[in-house]
Each structure stands twice: as structure tokens, then as C-alpha cells.
Design goal:
single chain; alpha+beta; 10-stranded mixed sheet; 6-stranded antiparallel sheet; 8 helices; 29% strand; binds N-(5'-phosphopyridoxyl)-D-alanine
């Protein structure tokens, strides 16, 4: 069933309405999460809910739901579609008020919205051919670590990529590569797998953390270090990671081939580790449910 969770109720999608004065709409005064679910089982939900809590804290908005309430709601949405892979979109806004005022209201009545969208299985084209990416100046704000719904810069970057027949863009800021428009960045260079350290210049990705864990477990030399534009252009492999895209190999950067212009062997290996981890984590979650 295609239903939406809105402030404590599950409603048919066409009946789920938010007032036009909601601060999420008027000011982008809201944060969000995107949690993947594989065959009905949410993936790393606790880590996503931890990040949601950090985003709420950062925008000084009280979490309107307890952890068990969040998990119950997520499970309910997942159970609508137990066989397909989907992503759960969650948004918490500072609520709707009769007047439009920048000043945060008191008391606050947050709006909570959640719904699922099917995750397109990673297109075979991506594993076969990889993705083409352009670089552009990061025009996002100075708190990219908060998962806010203010995504205009990201949307414009995607539009520019599309215009240049590319699949995505990597943001450069002060001479360093930070992240993709909706993904984190890894490069393989001189025997090291490198991703930029968490800071207010990028979103601390849940997929990024998993890739780092897998690299550590598999004994792959890795580092959290800033990636200069020069290193990006010298990289043997470039990957973009996210909850909906998993690990995407970049085969061309600003029209020039990355490595030999095909998904590289390090990506292939990491992707195998990632797929195995997905299976393992899913089985562990199913086991836990039975207890
Ligand atoms: N975006 N950086 C940005 C700017 C992002 O928007 C995302 C995810 C990531 C990767 O984070 P994670 O691995 O936790 O998904 C990094 C989601 C998928 C979205 O906006 O739809």
C-alpha cells in the first residue's frame, strides 16, 4: 500500500497534506534522513536515527518521537513492501504556524513526515560502465554536516551535471574535494583508500562509515584525509557512496578517464565486501526480530 506517515497517522498518499505555512516549506526549517531497506529490513536504522538526532540537536529542535516509536514506524512502512528494496524518507520540520516569521516559534509543534520510495536496484550499467562526474565549486553553506532539507545547491549541481552529459558532480572548496551532490567521496591513490575527514563541510555518511569499517576489517590501507584537487585528478579510482547508490565507481572526471576509464579492481573488491555486509546485516536484523 502506498501510504504516508504524517504526525502519528498512516494515510493514503493523496490524503497526506501539510499546511502551506509549514516552516519546512517556508524556510527550509527542517531536517531529514534517507534509510535504505532491503527486502523489508531497514539497513543501519540506528545509525541513521543517531544522525537524525544530531541534525535535530544542531537546529535546536526537540526530537518529537522516542527511538522505539521511530523504529516501529519505520518497520510499519517497510512491511508495506517486504519484497522490494526501498528507501525510507523521513522529515521533521519546525511545524506550521498561522503567521510567517523567521523567529523560531514557542512552543514548537514539529511536523513529522515519512514515506517510502522504491530503490532502483543498482543499474547494471553502473557496475559495468561506472558514472561520469564533473567538478564544481561547492556553493553549499557552512554546515553541510547537518542533513537539512535545504538542497538547492545540490539540485543546481545536478542540473549542471545533466547539462554537461554527466551523472553527478563533486564539490570542490578551498582547493579540496569534499563530497558529491548526494554522496560521499573516496579515492584510491598510491596504495591508499582516502576519504575526507568528517567536518562541517560534508555530510557524515552512513555508507561512508560502513566502507571505512569494511576497509579496516579487510586490512585495506585507508585514511581520512583531505583530498586536494590535484590528488582527485591523479586518483587511480574514485567512488561516490550513499544509501541509495551504495558504492558507485566514477570512470570519468570532467571528461577525462579515471584510471583506465572502467570500474577499477579496488571498487570491485569493495563492492563484493559491501554486498556481503548487506546480506549479513539483513540476516542479523531478521534474527533479532525473531527473538
Ligand atoms: N543523501 N552527502 C550528501 C550531501 C548527501 O545528501 C548524502 C545522502 C550523502 C551520503 O550519506 P548516506 O551514506 O548516509 O546516504 C553524503 C541521500 C541519499 C539523499 O539525500 O537522498
Amino acid at each position: 500500500m502506498d501510504r504516508v506517515y504524517l504526525n502519528g497517522r498512516f494515510l493514503p498518499r493523496e490524503e497526506a497534506c501539510v499546511p502551506v505555512t509549514d516552516r519546512g516549506l517556508l524556510f527550509g526549517d527542517s531536517v531529514y534522513e534517507v534509510i535504505p531497506a532491503y527486502a523489508g529490513v531497514p539497513f543501519r536504522a540506528e545509525q541513521h536515527l543517531d544522525r537524525l538526532q544530531r541534525s535535530l540537536d544542531a537546529i535546536r529542535l526537540r526530537n518529537p518521537m522516542s527511538r522505539p516509536e521511530w523504529l516501529e514506524m519505520i518497520d510499519a512502512l517497510c512491511s508495506d513492501c517486504p519484497t522490494h528494496d526501498q528507501s525510507i524518507y523521513i522529515r521533521v520540520t519546525r511545524g506550521a504556524y498561522p503567521t510567517r516569521a523567521h523567529r523560531p516559534p514557542d512552543p514548537v509543534k514539529p511536523t513529522v513526515i515519512a514515506f517510502v520510495t522504491p530503490i532502483r536496484e543498482r543499474a547494471p550499467r553502473i557496475a559495468r560502465e561506472g558514472i561520469r562526474v564533473i567538478t564544481m565549486t561547492g556553493i553549499r553553506w557552512h554546515r553541510c554536516d547537518i542533513k537539512t532539507t535545504n538542497l538547492l545547491a545540490n539540485v543546481l549541481a545536478q542540473a549542471e551535471a545533466l547539462e554537461k552529459q554527466a551523472d553527478d558532480a563533486i564539490f570542490l572548496r578551498n582547493g579540496s574535494a569534499r563530497e558529491g551532490t548526494a554522496s560521499n567521496l573516496f579515492i584510491a591513490l598510491d596504495g591508499l583508500l582516502i576519504t575526507p575527514p568528517n567536518s562541517d563541510e560534508l555530510l557524515p555518511g552512513i555508507t561512508r562509515d560502513l566502507v571505512l569499517e569494511l576497509a579496516a576489517d579487510a586490512g585495506i590501507a585507508h585514511a581520512e584525509a583531505s583530498i586536494s584537487e590535484e590528488d582527485l585528478r591523479r586518483a587511480e579510482e574514485i567512488w561516490l557512496t550513499s544509501s541509495t547508490r551504495e558504492i558507485a565507481p566514477v570512470v570519468s572526471l570532467d571528461g577525462k578517464p579515471v584510471g583506465d576509464g572502467t570500474p577499477g579492481p579496488k571498487w570491485r573488491y569493495m563492492d563484493q565486501l559491501f554486498q556481503a555486509a548487506k546480506q549479513r546485516i539483513r540476516l542479523e536484523a531478521l534474527e533479532k526480530r525473531k527473538q
